[in-house]
Amino acid sequence: MWAVFLVLFLPLFALPLLVVLGASFATHWSGVLPSGFTTAHYQAATRGEALRALTTSLVTAVTASLLALTAGTWAALAAAALRKRHRKVMDALFVLPVAVPSVVVGLAILVAFSQPPFLLNGTRWIVITAHAVLVTAFAHQSVSAALARLDPAYEQAAASLGASPAHVLWRVKLPLLLPSLTAAAGLCFALSMGELSATMMLYPPDWTPLPVLVHAATDRGALFTGSAVAVVLMAATLLVLLAVSRVRTRASYR
Amino acid sequence: MAASATLGLPAPGKRAGVPAWVWALPPVALLGLVFLYPLALVVRQSFRPGTGGTSVQPYADVFASEAFREALWTTVWLAAGSTAGCLVLGFVLALVIAFVPFPGARAVSRFIDVFLSFPSFLITLALLFIYGSAGMANGLWTDVTGAAEGPFRFLTTPWGVLLAEITYFTPFVMRPLLAAFSQVDTAQIEAASSLGARAPRIVRQVVLPEALPALAAGGSLVLVLCLNEFGIVLFTGAKGVTTLPMLVYGKAILESDYPGACVVAVVNVLISVGLYGLYRVVSRRAGA
Q1: What residues of chain A, 185 to 214, have a C-beta less than 8 Å from chain B?
Q2: What total of structural domains would you count in chain A?
Q3: Is the pLDDT score of B206 beyond 60?
Q4: Is residue A37 assigned to a domain?
Q5: Residue of B120, B132, B115 whose CA lies nearest to B234
Q6: Which label site among A13, A26, A166, B69 has the fewest CB atoms less than 10 Å from its CB?
Q7: Taking the alpha carbons of B48, B54, B59, B62 in that order, is the dihedral positive or negative?
Q8: What's the pLDDT tens digit per position in A29-56?
């Protein structure tokens, strides 16, 4: 059983990541292992166009995640106060973007925001809007799951002691939700960092996120440079996820 | 709610002057503006051929084209094949992680979480180095046999996409399965084995029935994700593999045929949203 597991698991899941990492340090790969150790791809992947793409990706992911968290949390809180039938309708509305293909979300936003009254085409906001739409569903899902698990005794106690609804929300509910909010933030950020389908439909030339750059590099045959950019993408995502999970541990100890 | 009423506590949302549904309006309006309104425009555009007016001509054109029918068929069989592969592989792997005690089990589930946070196209990129024309597998073959070329050249065929999709989406099946397996009563398994049942029979008669709801839920999620997958197919770069999302991209961006792209998009959305509705019903029953 053990051996079966190792034979299946390692080549399938660990090897792809290792191969990309190995290729990012190589000049060519014609045998079993890559050859010609070099860090030149990283020099290319951390300056100029690639560096701009990294900041573009980070800014897009952070902005989209914040927008999605705000909208998703608001929607989840508002839905929780509704009657059951209305709540179901609202939940269904907010998970719908998961089911719709991201390419179609991209096409829809391209069609809608290339014509008056909303002209966003050609600006960075069209990319950020698309990312926010795509990740809001995940933020909404994890916050409403956390809300369902929340013990209502806390807010009832606070309210019976005379706290206003706004005070209850700010001082009781949101702090209790903080661990799931940070988890949702990490998920939204990671999804937005790797988003390619909707971005390919929308990105203006001066707002090129990292995944688009990886595709551009591999498309013109520069597989090794593409790998280095992909490793930068993975490292940036992992670093932010690590930071977010540290915030979460601290939040859950409070 | 009944308890708080008898205790004289204000019910949440009833206390402030504004009723609860007013608070629900801003997010719904925002979603309407950035998601529902754009989708409605896609549907409208799909009835407006480039020649002007309103007609079902774009639908007739698209349905009649060979490229669309081929893309529809490729999308469906790739998604079905990938889902079947993910279910088998995910079941076996989750079974081992859950029931065979070994030290790295926690690390493995951590690794799965990390794996899921990476974009799908990385898998295709990696497969290019493993099975590509000058990659690892072919390099090994030429080193061992002395042949000029290796035998692995399936990457630019649908089989390459199938392999990449199975690799990327299997963890999505493993997660609900691991949750389901953690609820299986080990006493049941011990009883079965003390009565002389062998491992395959225990799996078939004790574990599998418990895992069926999780398998159904994970499988339908993967089916929808595969139908919508774009990055893996785009990175494969094969002219011969066109799925519905690729066709939407090609028609809109490369050919600037927006009515055609919108027709394909409407078809794709109908298939995916229908299946996703099914997934929600199944997963609610499974309690996942």
Answers
A1: 186-187, 190-191, 193-197, 200-201, 211, 214
A2: 1
A3: yes
A4: no
A5: B120
A6: A166
A7: negative
A8: 766 677 777 777 777 777 788 889 999 9
Q: B204, exposed or middle or buried, with CB in 10 Å at 0-12, 13-18, 19+?
A: exposed
- Looking at every residue in chain B, the average pLDDT score rounds to 82
Minimum distance, in Å, between the CA of residue A124 and any CA atom of chain B: 15
Domains of chain B, earliest start first: 54-286 (1.10.3720.10)
User: How far is residue B57 CA from its own chain's centroid?
Assistant: 32
Q: Is B139 exposed, middle or buried (0-12, 13-18, 19+ CB in 10 A)?
A: buried
pLDDT more than 70, % of chain A? 94
Q: Is residue A96 part of a domain?
A: yes
Question: What CATH number is associated with residue A125?
Answer: 1.10.3720.10
Q: What is the pLDDT of residue A108?
A: 94
| Helix boundaries (H) for B250-288 | 258-286
* Minimal Cβ distance to A107: which of B42, B97, B275: B42
Residue A37 pairs in a beta bridge with A26
- Asked if the model's pLDDT at residue B42 lies above 60, the reply is yes
Task: Specify the length of chain A in residues.
Answer: 254
Confidence category of residue B10, pLDDT binned at 50, 70, 90 = very low
Question: Is the CB of A93 less than 8 angstroms away from the CB of B28?
Answer: yes
Query: Is A36 contained in some domain?
Result: no
Q: Omega before A117 cis (within 30°)?
A: yes
Given CB atoms, is A223 within the 8 Å cutoff of chain B?
Answer: yes
CA distance B204 to chain A (A): 16
Q: Is A131 within a domain?
A: yes
Q: How far apart are CA A141 and CA B59, in angstroms?
A: 35
Mean pLDDT across A63-68: 95
Single-letter code of the amino acid located at B161? V
The Cα–Cα gap between B251 and B231 comes to: 17
Q: Which of A94, A102, A107 to mutate to test the interface with B (most CBs of B within 10 A)?
A: A107
For B117-129, how does the pLDDT look when each residue is reduced to its tens digit (9 = 90+)? 889 999 888 888 8
Identify the domain containing residue A185 by its residue range: 43-253
Assembly ipTM: 0.84
Q: Do A78 and B171 touch (CB under 8 A)?
A: no
